[in-house]
Specification:
heterodimer; A: alpha/beta; Rossmann fold; six-stranded mixed beta sheet; four-stranded mixed beta sheet; 14 strands; globular; B: alpha/beta; UDP-N-acetylmuramoyl-L-alanine:D-glutamate ligase; Protein-Tyrosine Phosphatase, Chain A; 2 domains; nine-stranded mixed beta sheet; 15 strands; binds zinc ion
Chain lengths: 247, 434
């Protein structure tokens, strides 16, 4: 749907991977946010939902995934294995991706269950997650390349970054990857992994726009031209949480 | 000993104006076997009502039907749906023997506390309403919640009532011990298309469990129009036990399905004593619990407070009230009792508020709510995080209009206190709890 009186600056195909199985904590809000912001910036979003059993679209410009519960995760594992090469090729080629919580873990090298069983992941992010009996739950404030980022974590896995793996942010309040080393999430190329629900993008528009910029430049091969967006409400929501939690 | 100590605490906490759960805590500490003893031999059973949504309303309806049949029923009317709350409301009714002298107990318990309760006292009957995403920071996973309900069914000794339309609940039939009766409630197949109004479909996957065809003990909801409906039992030709047609004081499909669950459970409990006309009388007169559609007279205009706490509940509330848009305020807190994570607001569609917009958002997460509405193109006239100021503003700026406030639990408690003071409402909101 392009707007009637202004010409679209171009189409951006946003793919939400497993919206039914892996979006139990409002992570679809990230997709909604990106689609709206693309429109407000003058681009035309095409939102595609990828369900298990289908071939993953090779023309994706921006890929989003969320957190699910164990049963949801079990339902996507075969499909993920089936589409692993496509996703790895897209990631290696510079397609921006944002994977939250469960999908972040699946994008890592492996998940080691509480019983010690090693479940291999996609290996796109150089991280390994250890299952825990105890959950890490609560509001989070991070310091990132995009300023303060707020969100909400709810995970039982404890994630370790391999040497040289960049985190997404530094924890100012909350637990992050493992509750000990102050790192949160991981970034490799244009692929971002994070535990932050909330959902993370609406209240952190500078991070959302960074993903849009990457997608536009990668998809259209031309510089991102931003529109004018009033982010007063998002800024209020974010700065109030930062003040509350991290002084 | 425990009874006296608990009663003393109850008086003390009343004097302080304290909450309903404290005296129960005292008794629980003094005598852990307190519950077992108090409930030891209720002749007509101990019924536990649990599930994510509709516990308070359904419990109230079930109790009303049973009392209409002359049964003496103990219930936890403060809706304090934790074990402690049950004990504390019990203290007021106990004889010094420490026993409850009623025919039966009907208790509303949240999923986790229903199991704790069952560890002390085995319920004779349980009514399992539904499973939806709710405060995942507390229960972790919806699968986990479903598991808790299945475990409760395993502990139940006489009869279990299951929601036939919710596969998380209907498949619990496989966990019911041999010899324990199973009855189902649900919607008539003719309105199966309206199920999405009652439950979220996206987290329920295909299931190989197929519940059996409705029998004479299974109640199915058949609406006639927006307000009138019938509960039909099985396909008995005479339909003598069918309840209705009737109208509730509360609006909407969710209230009708709660009434269906209550009527089905009452029929299972009462057996041959069940009288459809008494069920109708009870259901038509029962008033909605606070925050579930109760209407307050605010300077001559109706003000509705609607408690919202999870995506399914908020979606149902918006669907119920969407046909009559009025001036709206939304108040979102993120204290423990509200659920600290507000992510779930993104799993609710607010499009039905678009035409009229929202007058005010308030509460600790007022700006997050306004932001959520912005992404659904719903205009927000004002954001005022302070609940007292927001309420004052809402009541004065929109004095001559009907009003509605959607609010989370602790926001509702604050607003309720303000409203009670402002309009001199006695015992206002006695039976509220999430
Ligand atoms: Zn999570």
């Amino acid at each position: 749907m392009s707007s009637s009186n202004t010409k679209s600056k171009g189409q951006i195909k946003v793919v939400h991977i497993y919206p039914r199985e892996m979006s139990i904590y409002g992570d679809l809000g990230n997709t909604r946010c990106l689609a709206s912001r693309l429109r407000w910036h003058g681009y035309e979003p095409l939102v595609h939902q990828h369900h298990p059993g289908n071939d993953f679209p090779t023309d994706a410009h921006l890929v989003l995934g969320g957190g699910g519960q164990d049963s949801g995760q079990a339902r996507v594992e075969d499909d993920l294995a089936h589409n692993a090469d496509v996703l790895r090729a897209l990631a290696a080629g510079g397609t921006p991706m944002l994977m939250i919580c469960g999908m972040y873990q699946l994008f890592g090298n492996a998940f080691i269950t509480v019983e010690g069983e090693r479940l291999p992941g996609m290996g796109i992010l150089d991280v390994t997650t250890q299952g825990n009996a105890k959950r890490m739950v609560g509001p989070v404030v991070l310091q990132t390349a995009y300023g303060d980022v707020i969100g909400y974590e709810n995970h039982s896995g404890s994630t370790q970054l391999a040497p040289g793996q960049q985190p997404f942010g530094t924890v100012k309040s909350g637990m992050g990857n493992n509750g000990t080393d102050k790192t949160e999430g991981a970034v490799t190329g244009n692929v971002f992994g994070s535990y932050l629900h909330g959902p993370v993008l609406p209240a952190n528009p500078s991070f959302a726009d960074a993903l849009i910029k990457l997608a536009v430049e990668h998809a259209l091969g031309e510089p991102f031209v931003s529109g004018r967006i009033d982010d007063e409400i998002a800024d209020q929501a974010r700065t109030r949480q930062v003040r509350r939690l991290a002084g | 000993m425990a009874v006296a100590a608990g009663k003393a605490a109850r008086v003390a906490s009343r004097l302080r104006g304290g909450g309903s759960a404290l005296p129960g805590l005292v008794a629980e500490r003094v005598d852990p076997a307190f519950l077992t003893h108090a409930l030891a031999d209720l002749p007509h059973g101990i019924v536990v009502v649990t599930g994510t949504n509709g516990k308070t309303t359904t419990t109230k309806m079930l109790v009303a039907i049973l009392r209409q049949h002359g049964r003496k029923v103990f219930t936890n009317p403060t809706g304090s749906n934790f074990t402690r709350g049950v004990i504390s409301s019990m203290l007021g009714e106990l004889k010094l023997s420490g026993r409850l002298e009623t025919d039966m107990a009907v208790l509303e318990l949240d999923e986790a506390h229903a199991l704790k309760f069952a560890a002390a006292v085995k319920p004779t009957h349980s009514l399992l309403l539904n499973v939806a995403r709710d405060q995942l920071d507390r229960f972790a996973e919806i699968d986990q919640t479903a598991k808790l309900l299945a475990q409760l069914a395993e502990q139940t000794t006489t009869g279990v009532v299951l929601n036939v339309n919710d596969s998380f609940v209907s498949r619990i039939a496989g966990h019911v011990p041999a010899g324990v009766k199973v009855a189902y409630f649900g919607v008539d197949p003719s309105i199966a298309d309206r199920l999405p109004e009652l439950q979220e479909a996206d987290v329920r996957f295909e299931d190989d469990f197929a519940p059996p065809a409705a029998t004479a003990t299974d109640g199915l909801l058949k609406p006639k129009d927006d307000r009138t409906f019938e509960v039909r039992f099985g396909d008995a030709a005479d339909g003598a036990d069918n309840v209705g047609p009737l109208e509730l004081k509360q609006r909407g499909l969710a209230a009708m399905i709660n009434a269906t669950a209550a009527a089905t459970t009452a029929k299972l409990l009462l057996g041959n004593d069940f009288r459809a006309d008494r069920a109708v009388t009870a259901l038509e007169t029962v008033t909605p619990p606070f925050g579930r559609g109760e209407v307050i007279d605010a300077d001559g205009q109706p003000l509705e407070l609607v408690l919202v706490k999870n995506p399914a509940g908020f979606t149902v509330a918006l669907g119920t009230y969407g046909s009559t848009p009025v001036t709206t305020m939304v108040a979102i807190n993120d204290n423990y009792a509200d659920g600290r994570d507000v992510s779930w607001l993104y799993d609710v569609s607010f499009e039905s508020l678009r035409d009229k917009g929202v007058a005010l958002t308030s509460g600790v997460r007022a700006y997050d709510m306004a932001l959520r509405l912005k992404y659904d193109d719903v205009a927000v006239a004002e954001v005022q995080p302070d609940l007292d100021l927001a309420l004052k503003r809402f009541l004065t700026a929109y004095k001559d209009e009907p009003k509605r406030i959607f609010c989370t639990y602790t926001a509702m408690m604050t607003l309720r206190r303000d409203l009670a003071a402002r309009y001199g409402l006695a015992n206002f909101g006695e039976d509220a709890q999430p």
